[in-house]
Design brief:
Layout: E1 2-6, E2 27-28, E3 31-32, H1 33-43, E4 48-53, H2 57-64, E5 73-78, H3 85-90, H4 93-96, E6 101-105, E7 108-110, H5 114-123, E8 128-134, E9 142-147, E10 150-156, E11 165-173, H6 176-183, H7 194-203, E12 208-212, E13 217-219, H8 223-234, E14 240-241, E15 244-245, E16 250-252, E17 255-257, E18 262-264, E19 267-269, E20 272-274, E21 279-281, E22 284-285, E23 289-291, E24 296-298, E25 301-303, E26 306-307, E27 312-314, E28 320-321, E29 324-325, E30 330-332
Parallel strand pairs: 1-4, 1-6, 4-5, 8-12, 14-17, 15-18, 16-19, 17-20, 18-21, 19-22, 20-23, 21-24, 22-25, 23-26, 24-27, 25-28, 26-29, 27-30
Antiparallel strand pairs: 2-3, 6-11, 7-13, 8-11, 9-10
């Protein structure tokens, strides 16, 4: 079985971060979202992986160096235009050939044993298996109607849902899905929908089965989702202090401090992860905060936030909370008599002042 990871989306809900970095490479507990997907595939003994992208090939390559010494063979598959999920799957046919394959949308975040799904796919002699998750507002999702372990239909954002089982971004297919993707017509949106491709399988006598999630699954489409995933991973970290903590600093809870990082006169209250070559001075870093590499934080209070590489943050009076701060960002408060804010912001920026 081969793996397909879809990383060609624009990440509109995560702008402006995604103007410069694909959403699949945004760090959660200091590891890109893509790494969690790759680890789950390797754990399921899937080592041949196609990664669908629309741009940023060099950035992806630099991150994938992490896996050079592991038994992973990957190939980029270019998606030149966005015409729907069924069209995206169709362009992977040359890579997949006659093999069975698992498809994972790159902004999925889950706690799941993929090998169990794959074993069930083969044991049930399916042509397609989809992974479902119970949701509270089915009107906002692609919803499956099921009966006796088989999928009867799939409907996109139905007004009158036939279940509360949302179709996640995890699918297992055999080669017959390529027939379906070629036979269907565009929906009213102008896109080729995977729900129509799966419906073609059902209508033509192919077996479509399902599994229901009983653990964590998230669609990381917004900053709130990213921060929740960060909280989830940090809640399980263990303390490991490799850097320097001076005697006037206080560390409580589980804190990971990487090599060559230094904590001076500060309070760090875990769970917190801090990358390498980072300096924190006269500051408070609260629970569920991830700080990447080469960051400098002075006279600040930060909690429940993600700080990417090479940021400089100093003398911010109010606590920085529930924030994602992109690479090379400078946030500086000037101590002057004039109380004012000065911003230089790119497209799709979000600022909340209290």
């Amino acid at each position: 079985m081969k793996g397909i990871i879809l990383c060609g989306g624009q990440g509109a809900g995560l702008r402006p971060i995604t103007h410069t970095i694909p959403k699949e490479l945004i760090p959660v507990s200091n590891r890109p979202v893509l790494y969690y997907i790759l680890d789950s595939l390797l754990k399921a003994d899937i080592t041949e992986i196609g990664i669908v992208i629309s741009e940023h090939e060099e950035i992806f390559k630099s991150y994938l160096k992490e896996y050079e010494k592991r038994n992973l063979e990957y190939e980029f598959i270019y998606q030149h235009q966005t015409l729907g999920l069924a069209d995206t799957i169709a362009i992977t046919e040359d890579f997949v050939q006659d093999d069975d394959f698992i498809v994972i949308i790159g902004d999925n975040f889950y706690e799941l044993n993929l090998k169990e799904l794959i074993d069930d796919f083969y044991n049930s002699t399916s042509n397609c298996s989809i992974f479902l998750h119970k949701v509270e507002e089915p009107e906002s999702f692609r919803i499956a109607e099921v009966k006796e372990k088989q999928v009867l239909s799939i409907e996109d954002k139905p007004k009158n849902p036939k279940s509360n089982l949302a179709v996640t971004g995890i699918y297992i297919f055999d080669k017959n899905i390529f027939k379906g993707c070629k036979e269907i017509r565009p929906s009213w949106t102008g896109e080729y929908e995977i729900s129509d491709g799966i419906k073609w399988l059902i209508d033509n006598g192919y077996k479509v089965t399902y599994n229901i999630s009983r653990s964590l699954w998230l669609d990381l489409g917004t900053p709130k989702d990213i921060l929740y995933a960060n909280q989830y991973i940090l809640s399980g970290i263990k303390s490991n202090i490799k850097g320097l903590v001076n005697e006037k600093s206080i560390i409580t809870g589980n804190v990971f401090l990487a090599e060559n990082s230094k904590i001076y006169n500060s309070i760090i209250r875990g769970p917190v992860i801090i990358g390498s070559n980072t300096i924190i001075e006269n500051s408070y870093i609260g629970p569920y905060t991830s700080i990447m590499n080469n960051v400098k934080i002075i006279d600040c209070q930060i909690e429940n936030s993600i700080i990417l590489d090479k940021c400089f943050i100093t003398r911010v009076m109010n606590i920085i909370d529930s924030s994602i701060i992109g690479e090379n960002t400078n946030i500086v408060s000037q101590n002057t008599c004039k109380r004012a804010n000065s911003f230089i912001l790119g497209n799709d920026s979000n600022i909340i002042l209290y």
